[in-house]
Amino acid sequence: MGVLNTIAQASGPGHGRPWRYYAELAEEFPFQERHTPTAGGNIGLLVREPVGVVGAIIPWNGPMGLIGNKVAPALIAGCTVILKASPEAPGEAYVMAEVAEAVGLPAGVINVVTADRPVSELLVRDPRVDKITFTGSTAAGRRIASICGERIARVTLELGGKSAAVVLDDYDLATAAATITGRACLMTGQVCSSLTRIVVSRDRHDDLVDALSESFSRVQVGDAFDAQSGMGPLAMERQRDRVEGYIAKGLEEGATLATGGHRPGNLDKGWFIEPTVFGHVDNSSTIAQEEIFGPVLSVIAADNEQHAVEIANDTIYGLNNSVFTNDVDRAYDVARQLRSGTVGHNSFRTDFGIAFGGFKQSGLGREGGRDGLLPFLEAKTIILDEEPGQS
């Protein structure tokens, strides 16, 4: 446990949180539980043992936090880890290797691989790897799940999202727009749980589009290291090409471009795009159904509250949603109807201290919290005739 706390200190106040959490959890977690046998025997034990060698595959957006939420619980469970970093962002994985060496972890406990995507498939196929934990696209997750299924390897998948903000009729639209804008531009919209479908009643649709357009148009796009910038560039050229392709598709399919949609005229270097809002979006359209991974919102009109819930659930994804209402009972009622791993109230909210993961094609399993430790453990039932340690 001391090693994890040392890693937490080396990781800094933000990224150190999962390391501190799992160090504390290890002190109280029931790795062995006593039960009364129901089919013979006198002593029943449920023990949780390490799943084995873990292949942890991480993407390029937010790698340091993802490392903590995968590697810390794996170590506490007693597993060794092969950390496979994205070729676009290998630096944090190298830092993790240096930290592991500096705190005195034995050689081979954490192993870092930086290579292109074919190496990930080698890792997934290798029978010496007992479990895969992957964060990335749903398309890649399908491939990994199919390979793991061939050899019955354990797998945790944290995949894509097309999350909805359901704005109920009692909530102030200007407040909703400001709150949604503040989070939609985080990491230039390159966040799997970002609220990108905004569902609102039909008679308030235009007013919310106007409020979001005004709020989005005030976001200053520029150098991410400039304190005046509200949003930096996309990660790479192909990512901007992807976002621009979806913007073109939205226009082609009849959505109304309310603001943004272009490259900023004052920036001639870097992969910048303006924060973009579409109105009059059909929920069956491409921009409403596919993950764009950029600062692009689709505002969708609903006939009533139940229709809004149906729209929010009408997607292959189920990662994150939010309900905007002043009535906490309505928020809870709608939250229980939404098919997603997290539902926030009046804001974008995800919490790795409790659990994070998705329904449907947004993934399998959970990361963070107590539930984030369980996938790295195998449960074993032991039934004995008498108490062990007595002879």
Structure in words:
By secondary structure, the chain is of the alpha/beta class. 36% of the residues lie in helices and 21% in strands. The chain contains twelve helices and 16 strands. It has helices at residues 2-15, 17-28, 63-77, 91-102, 117-125, 138-151, 173-184, 205-217, 237-252, 286-289, 305-313, 328-337; strands at 32-35, 43-50, 53-57, 80-85, 110-114, 131-135, 154-158, 163-167, 195-201, 256-259, 276-279, 296-302, 320-324, 342-345, 363-364, 377-384. A seven-stranded mixed sheet has the order 10-11-12-9-8-13-14, with helices on both faces. A hairpin with a 7-residue loop joins strand 1 and strand 2. 45% of the residues are buried. The model has no long low-confidence stretch (mean pLDDT 95).
Helical percentage: 25-40%
Query: What ranges have pLDDT less than 50 throughout 5 or more consecutive residues?
Result: none
Q: Helix/strand-derived class?
A: alpha/beta
How would a textbook summarize the main sheet?
7 strands, mixed
Question: Helical segment tally?
Answer: 12
Overall average pLDDT: 95
How much strand content do the residues show? 15-25%
